[in-house]
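Page 47, continued from p. 46.
Same chain as before, 159 aa.
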Amino acid sequence: MKRETVFLKLSVIVLALPILAACIFLLPFLWRDAKESGGWIANSMRPIVIGMYVAAVPYFMALFQTFTLLGLIDRNEAFSYEAVKVLRVIKYCALTITVIYTALLPFFYWFAERDDSPGFLVIGFVFVFAAFVIAVFAELLQKLLKRAIDMKQEIDLTV
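Result:
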């Protein structure tokens, strides 16, 4: 089990790197570019950049919680209430990201309409959809894990 969790921990790190790079390099560039362009570009891009920075916080929190969950799996504590709590935090982080990007959709629409690039609006919907799918999956895992723990405790009490 250790080998698989090491691979998954490396995967979590790989998932963190592009967002970290975007926060360090891409988003400041977009902010400066919007500032220099002014007008409607600045009015639509600045809220998007701010929202992406804000969404990065729950994203990294969810990745940290994923790391914690993998640590629990390493210690054979996957079927514990601690794991249920970790999945709940991941779910709330994903829902927070969903709400942030849903709030940003009008700005994505405004930019896509003015720039005549409908693909930009699709990007906003992809962010919303991906985060929502993760939230639903975490909720499902949380319920299944809680049910399995409750059944295990019931069996232990019966015996």
